[in-house]
């Protein structure tokens, strides 16, 4: 009867000859004949009672699926740790960019100006830890990422841990800037400026702050002077 089962098995799955690794297995009162990743379950009396998908080590197919899920969760957990490195690193970069932004605004205020327009891309050149760029065929790519971070960390942080990363794939420097720009603008808005706007299609951010209140005998601030001249022309 076992021989008949083998012949039926070969016919069912197109096997010309039994695999060398075929070996009988038992489960309760049944006999399982394993062939690679498949197995035929023969019930008592030698009749074919069912088909199980079994790995060569005896693991059931459903168990293998459970293992795959566990492996994927572990893999994503590792990716989250890698992504976290870039998340922490970009926070440090934005902090440094904000300090440089404040310094530029202070210079404008010292010149009695009430607004400033500053390029985030220009600021990035002054940040020592900012990823370094290289020009290739008129396009800037990231050449060096910085201490403790990598293209992989940036990729999983910006694209998500379920995305598929290709090691060695070049990263556009503009993509890195574009990813940091919204975070930078939000931090600028938290500084209490009267207005804050990002000029679409550029790296420029423009802010303004209130004019000081004029005291008796003090010269009017530039903005109020312009307003006074307009009113005088309107009266004339």
How would you sum up this structure, described in words?
The protein has 236 residues and is an alpha+beta fold. 46% of the residues lie in helices and 20% in strands. Strands 1-2-3-4 form a 4-stranded antiparallel sheet, with helices on one face. A hairpin with a 5-residue loop joins strand 3 and strand 4. The chain starts with a helix and ends with a helix. About 16% of the residues have low confidence.
Provide a brief overview of the structure.
With 236 residues, the chain is an alpha+beta fold. The chain has helices at residues 2-13, 61-110, 120-125, 151-159, 173-189, 222-235, and strands spanning 23-27, 30-35, 38-42, 48-53, 115-119, 132-136, 139-144, 195-198, 204-208. It is 46% helix and 20% strand.
Unreliable segments (pLDDT under 50, ≥5 consecutive)? 18-38, 40-56
Largest sheet: 4 strands, antiparallel
- Spatial ordering of strands, largest sheet: 1-2-3-4
> Percent of residues in beta strands?
15-25%
Mean pLDDT: 79
Number of strands: 9
Instruction: Tell me the distance between the termini.
Output: 117 Å
Order of helices and strands: HEEEEHEHEEHHEEH
Structural class: alpha+beta
Structure annotation, total helices:
6
Radius of gyration: 35 Å
Principal-axes shape call: elongated
Helix content: 40-55%
Could you name the key traits of this structure?
236 residues, 4-stranded antiparallel beta sheet, 3-stranded antiparallel beta sheet, 6 helices, 9 strands, 20% strand
Strands, helices and their partners?
Blueprint: H1 2-13, E1 23-27, E2 30-35, E3 38-42, E4 48-53, H2 61-110, E5 115-119, H3 120-125, E6 132-136, E7 139-144, H4 151-159, H5 173-189, E8 195-198, E9 204-208, H6 222-235
Antiparallel strand pairs: 1-2, 2-3, 3-4, 5-9, 6-7, 8-9
């Amino acid at each position: 009867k076992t021989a008949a089962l083998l012949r039926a098995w070969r016919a069912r799955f197109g096997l010309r000859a039994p695999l060398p690794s075929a070996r009988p297995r038992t489960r309760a009162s049944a006999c399982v004949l394993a062939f690679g990743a498949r197995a035929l379950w023969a019930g008592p009396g030698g009749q074919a009672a069912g088909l199980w998908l079994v790995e060569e080590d005896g693991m059931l197919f459903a168990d293998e699926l459970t293992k795959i899920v566990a492996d994927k969760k572990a893999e994503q957990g590792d990716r989250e740790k890698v992504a976290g490195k870039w998340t922490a690193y970009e926070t440090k970069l934005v902090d440094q960019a904000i300090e440089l932004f404040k310094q530029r605004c202070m210079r404008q205020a010292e010149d009695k100006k009430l607004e400033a327009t500053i390029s985030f891309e220009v600021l990035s050149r002054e940040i020592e830890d900012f990823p370094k760029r290289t020009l290739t065929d008129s396009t800037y790519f990231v050449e060096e990422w910085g201490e403790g971070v990598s293209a992989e960390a940036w990729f999983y942080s910006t694209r998500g841990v379920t995305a598929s990363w290709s090691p060695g794939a070049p990263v556009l420097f503009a993509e890195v800037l574009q990813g940091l720009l919204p975070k930078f603008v939000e931090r600028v808005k938290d500084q209490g400026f009267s207005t804050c706007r990002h000029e679409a299609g550029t790296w420029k951010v423009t802010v303004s702050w209130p004019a000081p209140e004029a005291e008796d005998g003090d010269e009017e601030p530039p903005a109020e002077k312009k307003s006074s001249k307009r009113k005088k022309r309107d009266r004339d």
